[in-house]
Structure formats: structure tokens, C-alpha cells
């Protein structure tokens, strides 16, 4: 009887552990390199190279101007973190009227070096004019990242680019990638947890009744 109850207690603990995942912050390894690619489908002037995730701007030439690349990571809570990679130019990054932004992180190279297993739950790209004037921002693109669980630090994946239309000839000089990640594993819906708990309780009750019957 004692062994039965010990087994039931262990089952309950394992079931409840699904709702209490471990936390691990920060997420990106500092001073590691990642690959970034940006180009205009019509205007060209691509930016491609390896950059260091350390919060220090790096400058590279683009056409007759330049682009700086910088990164930040902000801890939101014990489980979540926001990663932002910003590209800033000194001229319109997509000057052609019907330009399409082609963008990727880790495409044809290295993704973000993640210290812990995380899930990518939100991914957006914002396009801004000088002074922070918002031109456009995408919906959540996390589903477009061909990813295993956990996230592999690539966006969208190792061989494809994200194409964003409607930003040509609008004086876009800043692009911000924003990734929201969590160390929490996906947990069953509350209703499923409740059903599981009821099932374990029923199993415990049945075991107790069987034990009582044997005593008689």
C-alpha cells in the first residue's frame, strides 16, 4: 500500500511539473557572432556579414552610405526576454518605389547563439524614418520561422529570406527586428491539467478502496 501511494505522489509531482518550467535568463551569449542579411529587391545595395552580439554598434558601407548594426536584450520577467537587432542607415534603405525588403538572420550563416532552450513566441520587424517615426510594422512572423522546438536562433531559416512589401521610397532608415522568447515549455490547457488531476485522484481512490477490500 505504501509503495502504491509513493507511486501516485510521484505521478502527481510529474504532472504538476508540466506547469512549472525552469527559468533561464539572459538568452543570447554575449560577444558571439551571428549572420545578418538585408537587401532591396529593386534597389540592391545588400548588407551581408557577421556581427557580434555585444551592444556595440558596428558600421559597414552600403552603396554611397553606411549602415550600423546594434543589438540589445531586455529581461522581461523570470522566463521571458526581448531581443532587438537594429539596422540604421544614413539614407533611404529602400529607395525604389516598388522595393521589397529582403531580410534574414542566420540565413546562409550563423544564427543567434542561444544559451538555453527557448521558444520563439513573437517576431516582428519595424521600419522607421529618422527620429523614430514609424512607417510600418509587421504582424507576428514567428510562424514563418522554420524552427524546431526549441528555437534555433535563425529567422526565418538557414536558406530563406523574409520579404516585406510596401516600404519602398518611404525614407526608411531604421529597421528593427524584435524577438520575444520564453524559456517556458508549452503546457497543457488548464482543462487538460484538471482532467489529469481528476484522473490521478480517481486512481488514488480506487487503490485505497482495493486496499480496504483486501483487509476484509
Structure at a glance:
The protein has 216 residues and is of the alpha+beta class.
Structural class: alpha+beta
Q: How many separate structural domains?
A: 2
Distance between the termini: 15 Å
The arrangement of helices and strands along the chain is HEEEEEEEEEEH
> Looking at the structure, what is the overall shape?
globular
- Quaternary structure: single chain
SS field, number of helical segments: 2
**Helical fraction:** 10-25%
Rg, nearest Å: 25 Å
List the uncertain runs.
14-24, 191-195
Summarize the main sheet. Answer: 6 strands, antiparallel
Estimate the mean pLDDT confidence: 82
Biggest sheet strand order reads 3-4-5-10-7-8
Approximately what portion of the residues adopt beta-strand conformation?
35-45%
User: How many β-strand runs?
Assistant: 10
